[in-house]
Predict the structure of ABC transporter ATP-binding protein.
Amino acid sequence: PAPPDTLDVRHLTVAYGRSVHALHGVSLHVPPGRIVALLGANGAGKSTLLRAVSGTLPLHNGAVEGGSIAFGPTVLTGRDPAAAVAAGVVQVPEGRRVFAALTVEENLRAGQLGTARRSRAEARATAERVYGLFPVLAERRHQAAGLLSGGEQQMLAMGRALMARPRLLLLDEPSLGLAPQVVRRIAETVREVHRQGTGVLVVEQNAALALELADHACVLENGRVRLEGPAGELSRTDEVRRLYLGEE
Ligand code: ATP
């Protein structure tokens, strides 16, 4: 039987319509509670991989054409986001979509939809844990989310995902467009979430940040795994230094 809380992606092929093959036979493993970073140029297939795992490929044209995805004993191949969330796999979407007209608190509450029913006390404890990670959200809990800064919205999107108490958190470009100080805050939170035992699969354009956070990294190129290994080792390879870390 598959070990619990392990993400096991095997030979995954995903296409958009008939002509665009975004992933060709990609295999990837996230052991329980580990941080794995996905690197690669624009269009390499990173978001597609996350979306296939979380069940959020665009319904009109995205489809898994081959291979398999499992989280522990649960097969997620071709399943919907509800199935992924129920299994403990939750994605923070790219572009930090929050419900602008709802308050911070209401956004967090929405993060529990589709998860196992919990008592009010448990729900409150989970919300307090999120507020503990992001004190600024506690200060603004009654404000409309649309009034938050970009960084605060990213925190809220992460907090909302954490309300589902994921066993694996999928992060798509968490640092995109954020000021360095906010990026630090987000990175600390990722570490804290990891310390609390949650696995993380993170897509990040900021390769230096991703390699610093991750235990293991995987470089995608044109929908295939080009390199992979312990983050420390990868960050010393010539290819990664030149192409992703901007060194000579
Ligand atoms: P980026 O950082 O630019 O988001 P990425 O590595 O996440 O890059 P994907 O977004 O997964 O890459 O895209 C992989 C390929 O699939 C690209 O060629 C892209 O143009 C194509 N693609 C992505 N989404 C769709 C879609 N909804 N319909 C058609 N093609 C798509």
